[in-house]
């Protein structure tokens, strides 16, 4: 309704002030805001509507909405022109990073969690876990290998030997003893 004159606007405002619409919800006496509801009840309904729209539109899919009415798996399939009716394999818990392809479990890479459980200790900052077959989703311990990226800071032979001894001690390997130009593990 468009009010053309100041008099019409004044009468409209007086009528609203003297006869304010009330919320349609039984027992609520708050003033009307939109769609017959007060602010509180209107926002509750709007929030419920927003939550309904946050699921994938493919029948039977429980994934969360990403774009175009689809979850991430169905969105990628729709974008690539693939069949949307095939079930999507979902990893139990966590998520797969679209950039790296790694599976995360609560902000930790799953392959690191598996290796930590296998070793019985947290991984050190310089330790990496390598997938032997190259499949970043294959996190079986048989497919994982522990790598160390730590390097000695100096280039003198003495520095390198000291670093090597520290590294061996860190992994509970007996020290190397050099005698007559030959290297032996442990004191023999």
Short account of what is shown:
The chain is of the alpha+beta class.
Account of the protein in words:
The chain is an alpha+beta fold. 32% of the residues lie in helices and 13% in strands. It is built from five helices and seven strands. The strands form three sheets. A three-stranded antiparallel β-sheet has the order 1-2-3. A two-stranded antiparallel ribbon has the order 4-5. The longest helix has 14 residues, at 39-52. It starts with 5 loop residues before the first helix and ends with a strand. 6% of the residues are buried.
Structural class based on helices, strands and sheet pairing: alpha+beta
How far from one another are the termini? 100 Å
Main sheet, how many strands, which sense, barrel?
3 strands, antiparallel
Low-confidence stretches: none
DSSP helix fraction: 25-40%
Question: Strands across the major sheet, in which order?
Answer: 1-2-3
Shape: elongated
* Average of per-residue pLDDT values: 76
Counted by DSSP, the helix tally is: 5
Along the chain, the helix and strand elements come as HHHEEEHEEHEE
Radius of gyration: 33 Å
- Beta-sheet strand percentage? 5-15%
Number of DSSP strand runs: 7
List the helices and strands and how they pair.
Elements: H1 6-18, H2 39-52, H3 72-80, E1 95-96, E2 103-105, E3 108-109, H4 110-119, E4 127-131, E5 144-148, H5 157-170, E6 176-179, E7 182-185
Antiparallel strand pairs: 1-2, 2-3, 4-5, 6-7
């Amino acid at each position: 309704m468009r009010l053309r004159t100041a008099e019409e606007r004044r009468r409209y405002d007086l009528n609203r002030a003297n006869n304010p619409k009330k919320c349609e919800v039984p027992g609520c006496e708050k003033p009307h805001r939109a769609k017959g509801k007060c602010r509180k009840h209107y926002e509750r309904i709007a929030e419920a509507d927003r939550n309904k729209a946050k699921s994938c539109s493919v029948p039977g899919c429980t994934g969360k909405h990403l774009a175009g009415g689809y979850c991430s798996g169905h969105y990628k399939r729709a974008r690539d022109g693939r069949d949307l009716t095939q079930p999507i394999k979902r990893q139990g818990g966590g998520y797969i990073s679209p950039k790296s392809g790694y599976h995360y479990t609560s902000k930790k890479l799953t392959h690191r969690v598996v290796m930590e459980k296998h070793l019985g200790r947290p991984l050190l900052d310089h330790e990496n876990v390598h997938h032997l077959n190259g499949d970043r989703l294959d996190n079986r311990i048989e497919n994982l290998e522990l790598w160390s990226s730590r390097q000695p800071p100096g280039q003198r032979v003495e520095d390198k030997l000291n670093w090597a001894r520290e590294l061996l001690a860190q992994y509970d390997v007996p020290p190397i003893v050099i005698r007559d130009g030959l290297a032996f593990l442990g004191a023999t």
